[in-house]
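Appendix C reproduces, verbatim, an entry submitted by the partner laboratory led by Prof. M.T., so that reviewers can inspect both the input and the predicted structure.
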Amino acid sequence: MQLSDDPRAAALIEFLGAQGAGELGHGIGRSLLGHLVETYQIVRRWGLPAWLQHAALIHSVYGTDAYQRQTVAVSRRAELVRLAGSRAERIAYLFCATPRGPLLAGTYVWMRSLPPRPDVAGCECGSEAPASREELDAVVLLHMANVAEQARDKNGAPATWLVRLRDMAEPLLDADSIALPRFLATLASFTDEHESLARDAYSSGLRVGDPVARASALGMAAAACPVVPEPCLWQAYLAWCRGDIVAARAWARTARERLDQLGTAWDKRLTFDAWLEIAAALEHHGPSEPASPRDPIGDPRRLHELMVARAGSRRPAPARPEPAGIQRFHRYVESLSDGETASPGRLYPKIKSQPWHEPQDFPLAVYLESNFAAIRDEIVALDPAGFHVESERIRRTGDWDVAFFYERGRRRDELCAACPVTAHGIDTYPAMRTISGLIYVSRMGPGTHIAAHRGPTNLRVRCHLGIDVPSGDCAIRVGGETRSWEEGRCLVFDDFFEHEAWNHTDRLRTILIVDLWHPDLSPTEVRLLEGLHSHTYAQARRLGRYWAANAAAMRASATD
């Protein structure tokens, strides 16, 4: 449990062990120390500040209104201030002293202060300064990590807790000092029914023997809850069993990305690190021994043994951030402040530049082609009133209409709800859903020509799936090469190259367009870029609300 890269955490763990936290029970078969360490790890994986990570490591040592045993007496606060730092200790103290009912109901957002708990032995509430909004935001985040760590069924199987976590985060949407974990944005339209469906389908999928029925149930679990990784790992394992290596690796990559964002195991019969080891093994080399597609295993512990414990020297080391990728990202961020650059943010350094890419290299393109029939039916059935004229300043003749799934970071829930198979692929597989990307249906009328133009950045490549393509002169030129769309097939190209498109036929042409991260970007770079884009988007929304409030106040003053 010692963490060489965080000496303060290591000192705190040693202190907690000396206080007997390793012998105190906390849940079935677990110790309080184990709970505290894993809560710290979750906060760390969520990318939250070091002071909040250290607060997580001691968050319940003074007791809470649900866990009243004090591992460390409140009278010893000065010791923890020296070990954890004053800011971390203050948050841990507030975690103890603040009643969680009104806190988690979000009333602190509009109340001047919450009343302290009256039942805390040795509480210094009379002399303690009232908690600020920023401090209580941090306490809510600790509660969220606390819930995420403890949520499990009696045997460690998945419990229902994600909707609760999403609702708990509602008061933090306008927080200025703390960023929410990124996976919560994916749960915006997630419901209790979705969560129960995911849990039931996952449980059923691990029990059923028939591999086709199992894959169907696990696919339902992965689709119903777009943030949980374990159904994707089992799909990767099933793909290895049937010899579909491309699908296995795509599912494993998706699972690893979900693990990184969720920050904890959903199926806690294995630890987070154990599931991460399985993901790495499935992504790189597969099972250590042949498995029968007619008799796949269904026990997570057995899967870990098969994938990792018997792999011996073949087991890959845990993934680490790539130094070259980090350096490249830093150079990109530095370029954003370059006043001599005409359009900062357009060029990401040292990534390959080529006009066309192979669709099979992109998991989402594979998904779109594999599910073309359902995707085509969804898009063809869309209400024409949901389309509008493409508004970009690109010269064209004829008619060009669009309907957005994602528009510069904003999800269009109504279109996603109308196209569940399409939306599942977009939300599950790597796609650019940030302010630099677009995902939409594009309709080009008969006799239409879109003039040559270039995309805004080299960070992305663009995938076109043919939905309804007329025969005849209907094509796209990228660089010096022209290709035609085909129904059910994807084209992937770098739209930073000059390109133009046309439909010189007498029928409507319809395609699905999805922006993807450039394949040269490492997972670390994508994660950092998504964080940068999310921060920019959130700041823009806050600024918009600020300006709107000021404008309303000025109008009100003018009428007085």
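The chain has four domains: 7-150, 187-314, 356-517, 523-560. Additional entries are available on request from the coordinating office.
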